[in-house]
Structure formats: C-alpha cells, structure tokens
Design a protein that fits this description.
Blueprint lengths: L9 H13 L4 H13 L1 E5 L5 E6 L5 E8 L13 H8 L12 H22 L7 H19 L6 H8 L3 E7 L4 E8 L3 H13 L6 H17 L2 H13 L13 H6 L2 H11 L5 E7 L3 H12 L22 E7 L4 E8 L7 H12 L5 H9 L3 E10 L6 E9 L5 H17 L4 H17 L4 H15 L4 H11 L2 H11 L5 E8 L5
Parallel strand pairs: 2-6, 7-11
Antiparallel strand pairs: 1-2, 3-5, 3-6, 4-5, 8-10, 8-11, 9-10
Helix pairs in contact: 2-18, 3-8, 4-5, 7-12, 13-16, 14-15, 15-19
Length: 509
C-alpha cells in the first residue's frame, strides 16, 4: 500500500519561509518560535495511556493523521521475525463490523483454518516420519477452509470506506522501531476517522492471514532472495549486530514467515498495540476541544495495558573488524559501517553535520574524491541511523565501483577521506554549508501537514518530547569543527567497523 499525496498550501509555504529565516538566526530565535508553536499545540493523554498531539493549521480544510505504534522488528524474537511487518498488512483487513458479511460465522471458519494449520505444523515437525498422505489431506482441507472463510468477507472494505470518504495519502510502513499508519481527510471527516481508526485497534480481525502471509513471502523473494543488494544489506546487518535485534531483517526470515500463526499475531497485537504504546498526531484544520471530545468518545473504550519494555539486549563493543562478501551477478557494491549512539544522544547533531560534509551533493568530499577526481566509483556517500534510531545504530559509508575498478580501490579511498576527517579541521565554509543544509533538510520535513505529523510523533516517542524537534535545530547550529574531528576519531576505528561488499561473479556458460 503505497499511496502518497503531497500538497503544500500557501500557509505551509509561509511556514517554511519563516523557518528558513529562523535557521539563519541565533538560538534565542528558535526558542521564540517554539513558544509560538506551542500556542497552537494541544496535548492530552487518555486514561488508557493513548497520547494525542493536536496542532492547529486552519488555512485549508484538511487534516492529516499519523498513528505511531512503537513496535517494529526490533521487538521480535527468533521464530516470529517479520511479524511486526505482517501485522501492518493485517491492520487493513477490517474489524468485527467492517469487512465481514457474518462475523459470528466467520469467526468459526477462522478457528477451523487455524486448527488445520496447527495440525499441518505438528505433522511436519516429525520430519522424515511425517505421513505424506495425511499431510496432503490436511493441506487440501486447509485450502477448503480458507475458501469458506473467504466467502464471508467483504474484500478491502476498510480501505474502500476511507477512500470513498475522501482519504488521501493512505499508507502504512514498518521499520525496526515502529509501525506507522497515515492518512489525510477533509476536516469535516474527523469523526469518521476517529470511528474507523479506533475500531481497527479495538476490534481487529486478522482475516485472510495466510493469503497476506504469502504476499509477504513474495516480498522477501523479490527484495532479498532474488536481489543482490537485498542479500548484502541483510548479511551486512547480521554481521554488524551479533546480539541486538537490529541484526534481524524487518521482512523476517522465510522459515519464520512460513510458520507464523494467526494466534501468534493476535498475541503480538495484544502485547504491543496497547493504547500506552500508541501516539497519534493530528495536524490541520481542527478544533482541539472537539478533537479531545471525539478521542474520548471513540478511543477511551480501548482497554489500557502495560507499556511494553524496551529491548534490553545491548550490542557489546566490537573487538575487531568484521567482513562479509556476497558473490553474485551484480556490479561491485561496498558498505563500511561503524557503530554509533542512538538518535537521542548529544552527539547526534554532529553526525548530521558530518554526513552533509562528506556526502551531500556533488561538492561533498566522497563524491568529489571517488567519482569526479579519481573516477573509481559511479556513486559514493554516507548516511547514519541505520537500520533504526531508537537504539545504537550504524554510520555507513558506501560506494558503487565504476567499470574497470574494484571494491578494494573504493574502500581504500574512503579510508583516506576518513583519515582527513580525523587529522584535518573541516573548513569554516564546509561547516557553514553543512549546517544550513542539515537544518534545511529537517525543515523540509515540515512542509506538509503529514510531514509535520510524522516528525511530531517521531520526536515524541524517540526523544520523549516533540519539542526536541526544535532543539535539534539548535543542536545543529552549535556543532563546531572540533566536534566533527573528535567524532571521527572516536567512532571511525578499525575495531569498530564492519565491511560488506558484493563481488561480481561471472555468469556460467
């Protein structure tokens, strides 16, 4: 489900202009703007623990909604990897009242589907002693049971209601740290959204579970198993993270996807989709008093629950370089990753500025050195915050070797640039441009109601307060050239790095 609508009203353009001006001012200006921003923000938490952030923007009769569930692949364990992503798919399958012709009959049909799948799993566990005739019989009955359950559903009713009533940008996505559900509506449809969104988290029905599981399996085949880059990314992260679940793929391992059950998905929902683990941002043409009244009417009925504990596994310090190589029919690709702190760390702004200096645009150091001058790569850059932000993650350099050149050449050239960061002070002009671009990048994310809603929920959950969105601008402004040099020396060491690459395998005749 990938529908994205981007619209910028005149008021949003003015907001961006104001922010861009503020980005050139002193720190007190950031604080003053935050104060004016707070005047239009309403925060409240329901008795069941569900947090709401409501921001008024009355220039256009539209509203964007962003539901942030603080659950992602890092909350999974071996055996159920991929379940957070699979549940994202299931969240669009409807409820007891939406998507069913006869829920009582459907519930019984789904129970039989689950029972048969359990029988199949039990027989398969016998390995060579499994009865093939019994398995064939069970599989046949399993298919028939799914067909019977399917006859009781109304296909895609949840999504069709949303679209028919004016929804745009209807989307959802899962990462390591979160699963997020987004949409925008005309402002006179706020109550409709409240009714539909609360219903799918109060009364979800995981119908068509095994069909959707098949869709996810096909995603894995296309994006990982048949994709050299996908293989590299998966093996690279598994090599870089030995203990922390950031080393597990968001899509899950194929064997786990194949054996996950609907009851396991329902238990996952009960554990991680309690109201205390949800944060909702509503941005646009809204009246906060009305929103709060509707939120209590529709969302207060969802039973509260204990907020899940964060991941307690800590990735131990790396004691030496790790390497992984994929041999495939692909052009050479190189990744070099260094462990670094989580997003909510005082050094994060330095990594933002550092990323810009070495990677942003055609004048950045990596592009200039590897692509323009040495001509050993067709692409080179860096990014940080991979694969997630909530826990310590990676700062990653990458390069795609040019024809006739190799990964080792690119690797050595990147190390030369890293050494310059450690020993030479970045210029005042580089630092100024990097700060300007880093602030502008953050500001651009506020250019729409939906973009701002996404940032508000992210900062609220990851840092504990949405106001840190503006403090991040201050932090970027405070970065010094000495900070950049210290960070490079502290983290970009041989013992702290993981190197991954695709080496081109010649096709067999």
């Amino acid at each position: 489900m990938k529908r994205n609508i981007h619209s910028i009203t005149g008021s949003v353009r003015r907001l961006v202009l104001v922010l861009l001006v503020l980005a050139t001012l002193s720190m007190p200006a950031f604080s003053q703007y935050l104060e004016s921003f707070e005047e239009r923000m309403t925060e409240f938490t329901l008795d069941n623990g569900l947090k709401f952030l409501v921001l008024e923007r009355h220039e256009a009769p539209v509203v964007s909604f962003h539901t942030y569930a603080a659950v992602g692949s890092s909350d999974e364990v071996k055996g159920i990897t991929g379940l957070a992503h699979l549940f994202e798919h299931m969240a669009f399958k409807g409820t007891k009242t939406v998507g069913s012709k006869d829920y009582a009959a459907e519930a019984k049909a789904l129970e039989r589907v689950d029972w048969l799948f359990g029988r199949i799993k039990s027989e398969q566990r016998k390995g060579e002693n499994a009865d093939p005739n019994l398995l064939n019989l069970l599989r046949s009955e399993f298919q028939e049971a799914q067909q019977e359950a399917g006859e009781l559903i109304v296909e895609d009713e949840y999504e069709e209601i949303m679209t028919r009533e004016g929804a745009s940008g209807l989307n959802a996505y899962t990462g390591c740290d979160a699963t997020q559900y987004v949409s925008s509506f005309p402002s006179n449809k706020i109550e409709l959204w409240m009714a539909l969104e609360s219903d799918r988290f109060a009364n979800p029905v995981l119908r068509e579970f095994f069909r959707e599981r098949g869709v996810v399996m096909e995603e894995r085949r296309l994006r990982t198993e048949s994709n050299p880059q996908g293989k590299l990314f998966e093996d690279f992260l598994a090599t870089a993270f030995k203990a922390h679940p950031y080393g597990e793929p968001v899509v899950g391992h194929m064997s786990d996807i194949q054996t996950i059950t609907r009851p396991e998905a329902e238990e996952f929902f009960r554990q991680y989709y309690s109201p205390s683990n949800l944060t909702i941002a509503i941005v646009g043409d809204v009246e906060p008093g009305k929103v709060k009244k509707l939120a209590k009417k529709y969302f207060d009925k969802i039973p509260g629950g204990t907020k899940p504990d964060p991941v307690e596994t800590v990735e131990p310090p790396q004691l030496g370089e790790r390497r992984v190589t994929i041999n495939d029919l692909s052009q050479p690709i190189l990744l070099i990753g260094y462990h670094k702190p989580a997003f909510d760390h005082p050094e994060n702004a330095v990594f933002d500025v550092l990323t810009d200096i070495i990677s942003e645009g055609r004048t950045a150091r990596l592009y200039k050195a590897l692509v323009k001058e040495q001509r050993i790569a067709v692409s080179a850059g860096a990014f940080h915050g991979w694969p997630g932000d909530k826990y310590p993650n990676l700062f990653t350099f990458y390069a795609v070797a040019a024809k006739g050149h190799t990964n080792p050449e690119c690797e050595q050239a990147i190390y030369e640039q890293i050494e310059k960061l450690k020993t030479e002070t970045v210029t005042a002009d580089e630092l100024k441009k990097a700060k300007t671009r880093s602030r502008a990048s953050l500001i651009r994310s506020l250019a729409s109601n939906s973009g701002l809603a996404a940032q508000l929920t992210f900062y609220q959950v990851i840092t504990g307060d949405w106001r840190n969105l503006f403090k991040e601008l201050e932090a970027i402004d405070s970065v010094t050239a000495d900070d950049v040099r210290k960070i490079a020396n502290k983290y970009f060491t041989a013992d702290n790095r993981t190197v991954g690459m695709i080496e081109t395998k010649l096709a067999e005749n």
